[in-house]
Amino acid sequence: MMKTFWEKKCAIVVALLIVFQSLSAPYFALAQTEPAASGTSWKTAPPDLLNKTETRFPKAAWWEAFQDAPLNQFVQTALKNNPSLQAAKTQIAAAQAIAKSYRAPLLPTLSFDPQYNYNVYGQNQFIFPIPARGPFQAYQIPLDATYDVDLFGKNFARYRSSKKQIDVARYQYDTAQIELAGTVATVYFNIAKWRHLEALSQDQLEASRKLLSHGQGLLELGQATLFDIQNEQQRLDQAQLNVTQFSANRQVAENQLLALLGQSPNTQVLATVTPWEDLHWPAILPVGVPSELVVHRPDVAIAEAQLAAADLDVQAARKAFLPTLMFSGTVGYNAVGLKNLFLGTSFATFLAATFSQFILDGGRRRGELELRKAYYEQLLDNYQNSLINAFTDAENSLAVLRSDQIVYQDVTRQTESARAKAREDLEKYKAGIQGEPPWLASEVERLDYEKVLTQQKIQMLIDVVSVAKAMGGGFQAPSQVSKQ
User: Fold this and answer.
1) pTM of the model
2) Beta bridge partner(s), residue 331
3) Span 2-482: which CATH code?
4) pLDDT of 218-234, one tens digit each?
Protein backbone atom coordinates (compact mmCIF):
# COMPACT_ATOMS: atom_id res chain seq x y z
CA MET A 1 0.00 0.00 0.00
CA MET A 2 2.78 2.43 0.83
CA LYS A 3 4.41 1.80 -2.51
CA THR A 4 1.13 2.43 -4.28
CA PHE A 5 0.56 5.59 -2.25
CA TRP A 6 3.91 7.16 -3.13
CA GLU A 7 3.68 6.04 -6.76
CA LYS A 8 0.31 7.80 -7.05
CA LYS A 9 1.65 10.87 -5.29
CA CYS A 10 4.70 11.18 -7.52
CA ALA A 11 2.63 10.64 -10.66
CA ILE A 12 0.19 13.39 -9.66
CA VAL A 13 2.96 15.87 -8.88
CA VAL A 14 4.90 15.19 -12.09
CA ALA A 15 1.77 15.43 -14.26
CA LEU A 16 0.66 18.69 -12.69
CA LEU A 17 4.14 20.21 -13.00
CA ILE A 18 4.31 19.38 -16.71
CA VAL A 19 0.87 20.86 -17.38
CA PHE A 20 1.46 23.92 -15.23
CA GLN A 21 4.84 24.74 -16.75
CA SER A 22 3.43 24.43 -20.27
CA LEU A 23 0.54 26.77 -19.47
CA SER A 24 2.26 29.39 -17.34
CA ALA A 25 5.92 29.37 -18.31
CA PRO A 26 5.85 33.13 -19.13
CA TYR A 27 4.88 33.99 -15.56
CA PHE A 28 7.82 32.20 -14.03
CA ALA A 29 10.12 33.46 -16.78
CA LEU A 30 9.79 36.81 -15.03
CA ALA A 31 12.20 35.55 -12.44
CA GLN A 32 15.15 35.71 -14.83
CA THR A 33 15.50 39.49 -14.64
CA GLU A 34 18.04 41.28 -12.50
CA PRO A 35 16.72 42.30 -9.06
CA ALA A 36 16.63 45.93 -7.97
CA ALA A 37 19.02 47.18 -5.34
CA SER A 38 16.62 49.01 -3.04
CA GLY A 39 12.97 49.84 -2.37
CA THR A 40 10.99 52.54 -4.14
CA SER A 41 8.72 55.01 -2.38
CA TRP A 42 5.45 56.49 -3.60
CA LYS A 43 7.23 59.66 -4.63
CA THR A 44 9.10 57.93 -7.46
CA ALA A 45 7.92 56.66 -10.83
CA PRO A 46 5.44 53.75 -10.95
CA PRO A 47 7.23 50.47 -10.18
CA ASP A 48 7.47 47.55 -12.55
CA LEU A 49 7.28 44.87 -9.88
CA LEU A 50 6.96 42.05 -12.36
CA ASN A 51 10.42 42.88 -13.67
CA LYS A 52 11.84 42.89 -10.16
CA THR A 53 11.36 39.21 -9.42
CA GLU A 54 13.73 36.62 -8.06
CA THR A 55 13.80 32.82 -8.27
CA ARG A 56 13.43 32.26 -4.56
CA PHE A 57 10.43 31.90 -2.33
CA PRO A 58 9.41 34.49 0.28
CA LYS A 59 11.29 34.34 3.55
CA ALA A 60 9.45 33.61 6.78
CA ALA A 61 9.12 37.30 7.72
CA TRP A 62 8.09 38.31 4.19
CA TRP A 63 6.31 41.45 5.43
CA GLU A 64 9.68 43.01 6.28
CA ALA A 65 10.20 43.57 2.54
CA PHE A 66 7.86 46.58 2.81
CA GLN A 67 10.43 48.33 5.06
CA ASP A 68 7.69 49.45 7.42
CA ALA A 69 8.54 49.36 11.13
CA PRO A 70 4.94 49.78 12.41
CA LEU A 71 3.74 47.00 10.10
CA ASN A 72 6.49 44.72 11.40
CA GLN A 73 5.47 45.49 14.98
CA PHE A 74 1.79 44.88 14.31
CA VAL A 75 2.44 41.53 12.65
CA GLN A 76 4.71 40.38 15.46
CA THR A 77 2.13 41.45 18.06
CA ALA A 78 -0.64 39.61 16.21
CA LEU A 79 1.45 36.45 15.95
CA LYS A 80 2.01 36.61 19.70
CA ASN A 81 -1.43 37.63 20.98
CA ASN A 82 -4.09 36.66 18.43
CA PRO A 83 -6.59 34.33 20.19
CA SER A 84 -7.44 32.33 17.07
CA LEU A 85 -3.78 31.63 16.42
CA GLN A 86 -3.28 30.54 20.02
CA ALA A 87 -6.22 28.17 19.63
CA ALA A 88 -4.56 26.67 16.55
CA LYS A 89 -1.38 26.23 18.58
CA THR A 90 -3.20 24.23 21.25
CA GLN A 91 -4.22 21.74 18.54
CA ILE A 92 -0.56 20.73 18.31
CA ALA A 93 -0.49 19.84 22.00
CA ALA A 94 -3.75 17.93 21.59
CA ALA A 95 -2.34 15.93 18.67
CA GLN A 96 0.80 15.16 20.68
CA ALA A 97 -1.32 13.89 23.58
CA ILE A 98 -3.29 11.64 21.22
CA ALA A 99 -0.05 10.26 19.80
CA LYS A 100 1.09 9.35 23.32
CA SER A 101 -2.10 7.38 23.84
CA TYR A 102 -1.46 5.45 20.60
CA ARG A 103 2.11 4.71 21.69
CA ALA A 104 0.96 3.04 24.90
CA PRO A 105 -0.10 -0.30 23.29
CA LEU A 106 3.46 -0.72 22.01
CA LEU A 107 4.78 -0.94 25.60
CA PRO A 108 4.12 -3.44 28.38
CA THR A 109 1.81 -2.48 31.22
CA LEU A 110 2.74 -2.93 34.86
CA SER A 111 0.37 -2.53 37.79
CA PHE A 112 0.48 -2.98 41.54
CA ASP A 113 -2.84 -4.38 42.85
CA PRO A 114 -2.79 -5.32 46.56
CA GLN A 115 -5.93 -7.10 47.77
CA TYR A 116 -7.54 -8.07 51.08
CA ASN A 117 -10.35 -10.65 51.28
CA TYR A 118 -12.47 -11.49 54.34
CA ASN A 119 -14.51 -14.68 53.91
CA VAL A 120 -16.92 -16.64 56.08
CA TYR A 121 -18.13 -19.72 54.20
CA GLY A 122 -21.61 -21.16 54.51
CA GLN A 123 -22.03 -24.63 55.94
CA ASN A 124 -23.63 -25.93 52.74
CA GLN A 125 -21.54 -23.86 50.29
CA PHE A 126 -19.41 -26.83 49.18
CA ILE A 127 -20.25 -30.45 48.33
CA PHE A 128 -17.51 -31.64 50.59
CA PRO A 129 -17.11 -30.86 54.25
CA ILE A 130 -14.75 -28.10 55.19
CA PRO A 131 -12.69 -28.05 58.35
CA ALA A 132 -13.84 -24.59 59.33
CA ARG A 133 -16.22 -21.94 58.08
CA GLY A 134 -13.88 -19.10 58.91
CA PRO A 135 -13.49 -16.24 59.04
CA PHE A 136 -10.56 -16.36 56.66
CA GLN A 137 -8.47 -13.27 55.85
CA ALA A 138 -6.48 -13.51 52.61
CA TYR A 139 -3.80 -11.02 51.56
CA GLN A 140 -2.28 -10.51 48.10
CA ILE A 141 0.51 -8.16 47.09
CA PRO A 142 0.93 -8.90 43.38
CA LEU A 143 2.82 -7.12 40.62
CA ASP A 144 0.88 -7.70 37.37
CA ALA A 145 2.37 -7.29 33.88
CA THR A 146 0.84 -7.65 30.42
CA TYR A 147 2.34 -7.21 26.98
CA ASP A 148 0.48 -7.29 23.68
CA VAL A 149 3.11 -8.39 21.17
CA ASP A 150 2.70 -6.30 18.00
CA LEU A 151 3.44 -9.27 15.74
CA PHE A 152 2.41 -7.66 12.46
CA GLY A 153 2.83 -3.96 13.23
CA LYS A 154 -0.85 -3.04 13.64
CA ASN A 155 -0.29 -0.90 16.74
CA PHE A 156 2.85 0.65 15.29
CA ALA A 157 0.94 1.67 12.15
CA ARG A 158 -1.68 3.38 14.29
CA TYR A 159 1.04 5.16 16.24
CA ARG A 160 2.72 6.39 13.05
CA SER A 161 -0.65 7.62 11.82
CA SER A 162 -1.11 9.62 15.02
CA LYS A 163 2.36 11.12 14.53
CA LYS A 164 1.27 12.30 11.08
CA GLN A 165 -1.64 14.08 12.73
CA ILE A 166 0.90 16.08 14.73
CA ASP A 167 2.39 17.20 11.42
CA VAL A 168 -1.11 18.13 10.24
CA ALA A 169 -1.66 20.26 13.36
CA ARG A 170 1.70 21.98 12.91
CA TYR A 171 1.03 22.76 9.25
CA GLN A 172 -2.40 24.07 10.15
CA TYR A 173 -0.73 26.35 12.66
CA ASP A 174 1.70 27.52 9.96
CA THR A 175 -1.25 28.18 7.67
CA ALA A 176 -2.97 30.20 10.38
CA GLN A 177 0.20 32.26 10.89
CA ILE A 178 0.48 33.03 7.17
CA GLU A 179 -3.19 33.95 6.92
CA LEU A 180 -2.97 36.15 10.01
CA ALA A 181 0.14 37.99 8.79
CA GLY A 182 -1.48 38.53 5.38
CA THR A 183 -4.69 39.83 6.93
CA VAL A 184 -2.80 42.19 9.24
CA ALA A 185 -0.82 43.59 6.29
CA THR A 186 -3.97 43.98 4.17
CA VAL A 187 -5.89 45.77 6.93
CA TYR A 188 -2.85 47.92 7.72
CA PHE A 189 -2.57 49.12 4.12
CA ASN A 190 -6.32 49.75 4.02
CA ILE A 191 -6.01 51.97 7.08
CA ALA A 192 -3.36 54.01 5.27
CA LYS A 193 -5.66 54.15 2.24
CA TRP A 194 -8.75 55.30 4.14
CA ARG A 195 -6.78 57.91 6.06
CA HIS A 196 -5.33 59.37 2.88
CA LEU A 197 -8.68 59.26 1.08
CA GLU A 198 -10.26 61.01 4.03
CA ALA A 199 -7.63 63.77 3.88
CA LEU A 200 -8.07 64.16 0.09
CA SER A 201 -11.84 64.33 0.51
CA GLN A 202 -11.44 67.05 3.14
CA ASP A 203 -9.42 69.10 0.65
CA GLN A 204 -12.00 68.40 -2.01
CA LEU A 205 -14.75 69.46 0.38
CA GLU A 206 -13.07 72.81 1.01
CA ALA A 207 -12.58 73.41 -2.72
CA SER A 208 -16.23 72.48 -3.40
CA ARG A 209 -17.41 74.95 -0.78
CA LYS A 210 -15.41 77.74 -2.40
CA LEU A 211 -16.79 76.80 -5.82
CA LEU A 212 -20.34 76.86 -4.50
CA SER A 213 -19.73 80.24 -2.88
CA HIS A 214 -18.35 81.64 -6.17
CA GLY A 215 -21.28 80.17 -8.04
CA GLN A 216 -23.78 81.78 -5.71
CA GLY A 217 -22.05 85.14 -6.23
CA LEU A 218 -22.20 84.70 -10.00
CA LEU A 219 -25.89 83.75 -9.73
CA GLU A 220 -26.62 87.04 -7.99
CA LEU A 221 -24.81 88.86 -10.80
CA GLY A 222 -26.78 86.91 -13.39
CA GLN A 223 -23.66 85.18 -14.70
CA ALA A 224 -24.64 81.66 -13.57
CA THR A 225 -27.79 79.59 -13.71
CA LEU A 226 -29.65 77.74 -11.02
CA PHE A 227 -28.63 74.51 -12.76
CA ASP A 228 -24.95 75.44 -12.21
CA ILE A 229 -25.61 76.00 -8.52
CA GLN A 230 -27.37 72.66 -8.23
CA ASN A 231 -24.38 70.92 -9.80
CA GLU A 232 -22.01 72.61 -7.36
CA GLN A 233 -24.28 71.69 -4.45
CA GLN A 234 -24.33 68.05 -5.57
CA ARG A 235 -20.55 68.07 -5.79
CA LEU A 236 -20.36 69.52 -2.27
CA ASP A 237 -22.81 66.94 -0.92
CA GLN A 238 -20.84 64.12 -2.55
CA ALA A 239 -17.60 65.42 -1.05
CA GLN A 240 -19.21 65.54 2.39
CA LEU A 241 -20.54 62.00 1.92
CA ASN A 242 -17.08 60.80 0.92
CA VAL A 243 -15.55 62.26 4.06
CA THR A 244 -18.14 60.50 6.19
CA GLN A 245 -17.77 57.16 4.38
CA PHE A 246 -13.97 57.20 4.39
CA SER A 247 -13.92 58.11 8.08
CA ALA A 248 -16.26 55.21 8.88
CA ASN A 249 -14.19 52.81 6.76
CA ARG A 250 -11.03 53.95 8.53
CA GLN A 251 -12.56 53.33 11.94
CA VAL A 252 -13.77 49.87 10.89
CA ALA A 253 -10.32 48.97 9.54
CA GLU A 254 -8.62 50.22 12.71
CA ASN A 255 -10.96 48.12 14.85
CA GLN A 256 -10.25 45.11 12.63
CA LEU A 257 -6.53 45.54 13.12
CA LEU A 258 -6.89 45.90 16.87
CA ALA A 259 -8.99 42.72 16.96
CA LEU A 260 -6.28 40.90 15.04
CA LEU A 261 -3.79 42.12 17.63
CA GLY A 262 -5.96 40.66 20.39
CA GLN A 263 -6.83 44.12 21.72
CA SER A 264 -9.99 46.11 22.32
CA PRO A 265 -10.73 49.17 20.13
CA ASN A 266 -8.52 52.09 21.14
CA THR A 267 -7.73 54.75 18.55
CA GLN A 268 -4.56 55.85 20.35
CA VAL A 269 -2.92 52.50 19.72
CA LEU A 270 -2.93 53.06 15.96
CA ALA A 271 -1.25 56.46 16.00
CA THR A 272 1.94 54.83 14.63
CA VAL A 273 0.48 53.76 11.27
CA THR A 274 2.85 54.91 8.54
CA PRO A 275 1.41 57.78 6.44
CA TRP A 276 0.41 56.88 2.90
CA GLU A 277 3.13 58.96 1.27
CA ASP A 278 5.87 57.16 3.25
CA LEU A 279 4.89 53.61 2.31
CA HIS A 280 7.44 51.70 0.24
CA TRP A 281 7.31 49.13 -2.50
CA PRO A 282 9.14 45.86 -1.83
CA ALA A 283 12.55 45.83 -3.46
CA ILE A 284 12.15 42.26 -4.74
CA LEU A 285 9.14 40.11 -5.64
CA PRO A 286 10.05 36.47 -4.83
CA VAL A 287 8.14 34.05 -7.07
CA GLY A 288 10.14 30.82 -6.80
CA VAL A 289 9.92 28.08 -9.41
CA PRO A 290 7.06 25.65 -10.15
CA SER A 291 8.96 22.47 -9.30
CA GLU A 292 9.45 23.62 -5.69
CA LEU A 293 6.06 25.21 -5.05
CA VAL A 294 4.57 22.01 -3.59
CA VAL A 295 7.03 22.04 -0.65
CA HIS A 296 6.43 25.73 0.06
CA ARG A 297 2.67 25.55 0.54
CA PRO A 298 1.39 24.51 3.98
CA ASP A 299 -1.99 23.46 2.56
CA VAL A 300 -0.21 20.95 0.32
CA ALA A 301 1.81 19.73 3.30
CA ILE A 302 -1.42 19.29 5.28
CA ALA A 303 -3.03 17.25 2.50
CA GLU A 304 0.11 15.14 2.13
CA ALA A 305 0.37 14.39 5.84
CA GLN A 306 -3.34 13.54 6.03
CA LEU A 307 -2.95 11.20 3.07
CA ALA A 308 0.05 9.46 4.65
CA ALA A 309 -1.89 9.07 7.92
CA ALA A 310 -4.85 7.57 6.07
CA ASP A 311 -2.55 5.11 4.31
CA LEU A 312 -1.20 3.97 7.68
CA ASP A 313 -4.75 3.59 8.97
CA VAL A 314 -5.51 1.29 6.02
CA GLN A 315 -2.47 -0.80 6.93
CA ALA A 316 -3.62 -1.07 10.55
CA ALA A 317 -7.11 -2.07 9.44
CA ARG A 318 -5.66 -4.84 7.24
CA LYS A 319 -3.49 -6.15 10.05
CA ALA A 320 -6.46 -6.31 12.40
CA PHE A 321 -7.44 -9.53 10.55
CA LEU A 322 -4.23 -11.24 11.72
CA PRO A 323 -3.69 -13.18 14.98
CA THR A 324 -2.63 -11.52 18.23
CA LEU A 325 -0.27 -12.72 20.93
CA MET A 326 -0.42 -11.49 24.51
CA PHE A 327 1.75 -12.35 27.51
CA SER A 328 0.54 -11.80 31.05
CA GLY A 329 2.12 -12.56 34.37
CA THR A 330 1.90 -11.97 38.09
CA VAL A 331 4.55 -12.09 40.78
CA GLY A 332 4.03 -11.37 44.47
CA TYR A 333 2.95 -12.64 47.85
CA ASN A 334 -0.32 -14.50 48.56
CA ALA A 335 -1.23 -15.78 52.01
CA VAL A 336 -4.07 -16.46 54.42
CA GLY A 337 -3.35 -14.54 57.53
CA LEU A 338 -1.23 -11.46 57.78
CA LYS A 339 1.54 -13.20 59.71
CA ASN A 340 2.13 -15.56 56.75
CA LEU A 341 2.16 -12.87 54.06
CA PHE A 342 5.88 -12.24 53.77
CA LEU A 343 7.09 -15.77 54.28
CA GLY A 344 9.17 -17.26 51.52
CA THR A 345 6.57 -19.98 51.03
CA SER A 346 3.95 -17.28 50.25
CA PHE A 347 5.81 -16.02 47.19
CA ALA A 348 3.93 -16.99 43.97
CA THR A 349 4.39 -16.43 40.24
CA PHE A 350 2.10 -16.80 37.27
CA LEU A 351 2.82 -16.58 33.52
CA ALA A 352 0.42 -17.07 30.60
CA ALA A 353 0.61 -16.63 26.83
CA THR A 354 -2.59 -16.12 24.82
CA PHE A 355 -2.67 -16.62 21.06
CA SER A 356 -5.92 -15.37 19.55
CA GLN A 357 -7.38 -15.42 16.04
CA PHE A 358 -10.88 -14.15 15.48
CA ILE A 359 -13.28 -16.20 13.35
CA LEU A 360 -16.48 -14.18 13.25
CA ASP A 361 -16.98 -10.58 14.35
CA GLY A 362 -20.16 -9.64 12.52
CA GLY A 363 -18.24 -7.83 9.77
CA ARG A 364 -16.76 -5.20 12.10
CA ARG A 365 -13.18 -5.52 10.83
CA ARG A 366 -14.32 -5.65 7.21
CA GLY A 367 -16.39 -2.52 7.68
CA GLU A 368 -13.47 -0.72 9.35
CA LEU A 369 -11.17 -1.61 6.45
CA GLU A 370 -13.66 -0.39 3.83
CA LEU A 371 -14.15 2.83 5.77
CA ARG A 372 -10.39 3.46 5.93
CA LYS A 373 -10.02 2.74 2.21
CA ALA A 374 -12.82 5.15 1.31
CA TYR A 375 -11.31 7.86 3.51
CA TYR A 376 -7.92 7.30 1.88
CA GLU A 377 -9.41 7.73 -1.61
CA GLN A 378 -11.14 10.91 -0.49
CA LEU A 379 -7.89 12.34 0.85
CA LEU A 380 -6.08 11.33 -2.33
CA ASP A 381 -8.54 13.49 -4.28
CA ASN A 382 -8.06 16.29 -1.74
CA TYR A 383 -4.31 16.06 -2.15
CA GLN A 384 -4.57 16.31 -5.92
CA ASN A 385 -6.93 19.26 -5.53
CA SER A 386 -4.52 21.02 -3.16
CA LEU A 387 -1.76 20.75 -5.77
CA ILE A 388 -4.00 22.23 -8.45
CA ASN A 389 -5.09 25.02 -6.09
CA ALA A 390 -1.48 25.81 -5.20
CA PHE A 391 -0.46 26.31 -8.82
CA THR A 392 -3.70 28.16 -9.59
CA ASP A 393 -3.27 30.55 -6.66
CA ALA A 394 0.30 31.30 -7.70
CA GLU A 395 -0.72 32.03 -11.29
CA ASN A 396 -3.81 34.04 -10.32
CA SER A 397 -1.98 36.20 -7.79
CA LEU A 398 0.60 37.26 -10.37
CA ALA A 399 -2.06 37.70 -13.05
CA VAL A 400 -3.99 40.08 -10.78
CA LEU A 401 -0.78 41.96 -9.92
CA ARG A 402 0.06 42.21 -13.60
CA SER A 403 -3.40 43.60 -14.43
CA ASP A 404 -3.43 46.05 -11.52
CA GLN A 405 0.03 47.29 -12.44
CA ILE A 406 -1.20 48.20 -15.92
CA VAL A 407 -4.18 50.01 -14.42
CA TYR A 408 -1.90 51.76 -11.94
CA GLN A 409 0.37 53.02 -14.68
CA ASP A 410 -2.61 54.32 -16.68
CA VAL A 411 -4.09 56.05 -13.63
CA THR A 412 -0.68 57.54 -12.84
CA ARG A 413 -0.47 59.13 -16.30
CA GLN A 414 -3.99 60.51 -15.95
CA THR A 415 -3.22 61.86 -12.49
CA GLU A 416 -0.04 63.54 -13.75
CA SER A 417 -2.08 65.24 -16.46
CA ALA A 418 -4.61 66.43 -13.88
CA ARG A 419 -1.78 67.70 -11.66
CA ALA A 420 -0.25 69.61 -14.57
CA LYS A 421 -3.62 71.17 -15.41
CA ALA A 422 -4.17 72.20 -11.78
CA ARG A 423 -0.67 73.73 -11.57
CA GLU A 424 -1.22 75.61 -14.79
CA ASP A 425 -4.56 77.03 -13.64
CA LEU A 426 -3.03 77.97 -10.28
CA GLU A 427 -0.23 79.90 -11.99
CA LYS A 428 -2.77 81.69 -14.18
CA TYR A 429 -4.83 82.54 -11.11
CA LYS A 430 -1.79 83.91 -9.29
CA ALA A 431 -0.77 85.90 -12.38
CA GLY A 432 -4.26 87.40 -12.61
CA ILE A 433 -4.87 85.88 -16.05
CA GLN A 434 -7.99 84.06 -14.85
CA GLY A 435 -10.09 83.86 -11.71
CA GLU A 436 -10.03 81.37 -8.87
CA PRO A 437 -12.98 79.15 -9.98
CA PRO A 438 -11.15 77.54 -12.95
CA TRP A 439 -8.29 76.58 -10.66
CA LEU A 440 -10.68 75.24 -8.00
CA ALA A 441 -12.44 73.15 -10.64
CA SER A 442 -9.09 71.76 -11.79
CA GLU A 443 -8.14 71.10 -8.17
CA VAL A 444 -11.36 69.17 -7.53
CA GLU A 445 -10.72 67.08 -10.65
CA ARG A 446 -7.12 66.47 -9.59
CA LEU A 447 -8.28 65.27 -6.19
CA ASP A 448 -10.63 62.82 -7.89
CA TYR A 449 -7.69 61.31 -9.76
CA GLU A 450 -5.58 61.33 -6.61
CA LYS A 451 -8.22 59.26 -4.84
CA VAL A 452 -8.30 56.72 -7.66
CA LEU A 453 -4.51 56.58 -7.67
CA THR A 454 -4.46 56.11 -3.90
CA GLN A 455 -6.77 53.13 -4.10
CA GLN A 456 -4.82 51.60 -6.97
CA LYS A 457 -1.48 51.95 -5.17
CA ILE A 458 -2.84 50.27 -2.06
CA GLN A 459 -4.40 47.55 -4.19
CA MET A 460 -1.00 46.79 -5.68
CA LEU A 461 0.50 46.47 -2.20
CA ILE A 462 -2.32 44.11 -1.26
CA ASP A 463 -1.59 42.18 -4.47
CA VAL A 464 2.01 41.76 -3.33
CA VAL A 465 0.69 40.37 -0.03
CA SER A 466 -1.44 37.91 -2.02
CA VAL A 467 1.61 36.85 -4.05
CA ALA A 468 3.58 36.21 -0.85
CA LYS A 469 0.75 34.08 0.54
CA ALA A 470 0.30 32.19 -2.75
CA MET A 471 4.02 31.41 -2.77
CA GLY A 472 3.74 29.84 0.67
CA GLY A 473 4.35 32.85 2.92
CA GLY A 474 7.82 31.64 3.88
CA PHE A 475 6.70 28.08 4.70
CA GLN A 476 9.24 25.32 4.12
CA ALA A 477 8.13 21.71 4.48
CA PRO A 478 10.64 19.49 6.35
CA SER A 479 12.57 17.16 4.08
CA GLN A 480 11.13 14.11 5.78
CA VAL A 481 7.61 15.14 4.75
CA SER A 482 8.39 14.88 1.05
CA LYS A 483 10.99 12.15 1.28
CA GLN A 484 9.83 9.83 4.02
Assistant:
1) 0.81
2) 143, 349
3) 1.20.1600.10
4) 666 666 677 777 877 88
